[in-house]
Amino acid sequence: MKLLAAAVAAALLAACAQPSPQPLASPGTAPAPQAAQARESDIDALMQRMTLQEKIGQLRLRSVDAGPDARKEVLLDEIRTGQVGAIFNTVTRPDIRVLQDAAMQSRLKIPLFFAYDVIHGHRTVFPIGLGLASSWDMDAIARSGRVSAIEANADGLNLTFSPMVDISRDPRWGRNSEGYGEDTYLTSRIGATLVKAYQGDDPSAPGTIMASVKHFAMYGAIEGARDYNTVDMSPQRMYQDYLPPYKAAIDAGAAGVMVALNAVNGVPATADKWLLQDLLRKQWGFKGITISDHGAILELLRHGVAADGRDAARLAIQAGTDLSMNDKVYGTDLEPLVKSGEVAIADIDRAVRDVLRVKYDLGLFRDAYRHVGRAADDPADNDAENRLHRADARDVARRSLVLLKNSASTLPLRKQGTIAVIGPLARSQRDVMGNWSAAGKARQAVSVYQGLAEATAGRATLRYAKGANVIDDARIVTYLNEFEKDVEVDSRTPRAMIDEAVQAARASDVVVAVVGESQGMAHEASSRTDIVIPDSQRALLRALKATGKPLVIVLMNGRPLALEWEDANADAMLETWYAGTEGGHAIADVLFGDYNPSGKLPMTFPRVVGQVPLYYNHLNTGRPFDPARPNKYTSRYFDHENGPLYPFGYGLSYTTFDLSGVTLSTAQLARGGKLTASVTVRNSGQRDGETVVQLYVQDPVASISRPVKELKGFSKIFLKAGESRVVSFEIGDAQMGFYDGQGRFNVEPGRFNVYLGLDSRDANVASFVLR
Ligand code: BGC
Fold it and tell me: What ranges does the record give for the region Disordered, renumbered to this chain (predicted)?
């Protein structure tokens, strides 16, 4: 141990003294040829020295679970004997160092790498995925990614299981909260932005971590939005709508791909050779690692494609699943499978090479402690306040808030008089962080109440009442509280809580009701059959409405909700998702007008759950419904108003923006050419503000039916009150073409419609013809 420490210290000194070696590009991008050659020959040399067991050890990604010391001893022993390749769920430098020390005691001293779910921030928690997406602000999103990488790397971490780019058109799915919504183009842009922000140009550099895009593929299209369910999809929809975001992340250089838990068209992704080899590697040229999702290899048994563990291990490795996340079967079954000739050693070698390449590019072979640093430099307190990036979190959070309604300029509020702050989420520090925020500390998060209190200190009086439990249904509370305390149930009766809230409201000038879903309601394994605000809180809202005081609803939730009642009864409504560590400050900034809201919805909000899936880029059908001329035999529901409550791309501001008609640089375009579509945007209101100009394109006559419109560009702009600006977009093949059922990208001549607007519903249109 002493010797090892001396060797490490010497290596560290050497690393400081020498100029750093030529950086290698991330595995997804092509490294300089010489560097790549050196890497491959170093890996060749190492692999020649590895036994079969040591190779298999590299394919095991193990979780460190908190638990009895004996369990940790078992893990350390596995590491020392070369049976583990990488670790996840460790999140402090001292813990990581102990594990790396064990790897340095193994025969070949192959370093471990350390992964974690750094999903929307790390120590500092940023808004959840849907919130980030609502900003439509790539600089802000990149900032969240950079801060995440800096903080995660400062904890010794090397790789994150992010970004999650699963397109979803169904709000019932709890994991909508982690993704970026329903749109392919927006999600692709965000995925690529985050990959670059996490990885930088050199994944071995301080302050960077590798990205692994997930869940490959099409997890967001599970039937009925019931988590882990199956996916059945036409090839054209797959190529056109669901696959591009993964491809965009890979093109941006993502080092890893996490394989989805679901099956697609009957084949579980973990065993899908077409997906993991033909598409991912051969067509897309991916060179990084594939990682199974948690326990997914053994789940091949219950999917009904493997007879036993051995069969499952064989299918997964042959399909191209490199790393097994917390399944035993690679460890127990791959060796006999190779010995019996059922699995070729080439399959093992290919996967091992992928893993070693990642470690090489992380710089771990040069210095296994490269990212974890020296013990002497460990933070005295992992949660120290000065490790947080609060200013970044606050700024990104306020950009993520979406103003859904604001009648009679109820907002912004004035910092005076008495404000009732009511609701079960108003004082919650845990909920405001959202789920997948395990390195964040709730006690460091700013609740809405705290944000409002600080903003009004000395100027207005706040009156607080909880008013209701998040949910009263005991069965649901038990479900939500099974693994982590999610919902606090008050011992008072609902009546008593509402009475207290009504009293507070009556004694105030305005009511701010903070309602929605607890963070655990919008998580993995949190699918809902209904998407309304739970009854307990709806009853509270009704009682507050009855006081006649102006009612401002502040929503906290991780999926689109059905908000018809709230829309009809609130004077103003702000969608805040789960806004992160600085959520309360950011929300106060918007409620008091210190920041003018600019967020736009990345998912359609239906009126009622029975309408889902409801998404803006649908096909027209042969009998489209026209709200202006409703007709019986059209594609509609007869028992409810049709169309969304809030369309994709929608969001208000405290100012107003006017749009001119669309100008095209030409009405006739030659094949292979480009044209420019422009619109003049004017801030016609009284305040400075930002908005998002959105470009949609429609190919109304093609060889297959094409959507009524598809997002193909956007630009977030800031305009001073009274200011105008021309906003232009280039339109070429990338905006006009589409993938067919064979995965071919076609651009077909004919007429195209170009829409420019501030949401997907109200947009101005012009047409051109492609010759
Ligand atoms: C989730 C992944 C996550 C993994 C590791 C799984 O249950 O599906 O998204 O990265 O756990 O925590």
Answer: 20-39
Q: Are strands 663-664 and 724-731 parallel, antiparallel or unpaired?
A: unpaired
CA dist 297 and 308 (Å) reads 11
With H, G, I as helix, E, B as strand and everything else as coil, classify residue 287: coil
Residue that is written with structure tokens 């040229």 in the block:
285
CATH class of this structure's domain 54-375: alpha beta
The rounded Å distance from CA 163 to ligand 1 centre is: 12
Domain ranges of the chain: 54-375, 402-598, 657-770
Q: Cα-flanking dihedrals φ and ψ of residue 594, to 5°?
A: -75, -20
| Architecture in CATH of 657-770 | Sandwich (2.60)
CA distance linking residue 488 with residue 518, whole number of Å: 10
293 lines ligand 1 (CB under 6 A): yes
The pLDDT tens digits for 310-331 are: 999 999 999 999 999 999 999 9
Q: Does position 9 have pLDDT exceeding 80, yes or no? A: no
Q: Is the CB of 161 under 6 A from ligand 1?
A: yes
Q: What is the per-residue pLDDT for 464?
A: 98
Q: Give residue 32's pLDDT band: very low, low, confident or very high (50, 70, 90).
A: confident
Q: Whose CA is nearest to atom 8 of ligand 1?
A: 293
**More confidently predicted of 58 and 12:** 58
627-657 burial string, b = 16+ CB within 10 Å, else e? eeeeeeeeebeeeeebebbbbbbbbbbbbeb
Alpha carbon nearest to ligand 1 atom 11, residue: 294
Using the mean position of ligand 1's atoms as its centre, give its distance from the Cα of residue 162 in Å: 10
Q: Is the pTM of this model over 0.85?
A: yes
Q: Which residues are catalytic?
A: 293
Q: Is any atom of ligand 1 closer than 6 Å to the C-beta of 228? A: no
Q: 524: Cβ below 6 Å to ligand 1?
A: yes
Q: Which of 165, 229, 293 to mutate to test the pocket of ligand 1 (most atoms within 8 A of CB)?
A: 293
Residue of minimum CA distance from atom 12 in ligand 1: 117
Instruction: Give the CA distances from residue 320 to residues 166, 289, 315, 452, 667, in Å, rounded to whole numbers and listed in that order.
Output: 20, 9, 9, 52, 48
Domain 402-598, CATH class in plain words: alpha beta
CB of residue 294 inside a 6 A radius of ligand 1: yes
In angstroms, how far is CA 119 from the centroid of its own chain? 6
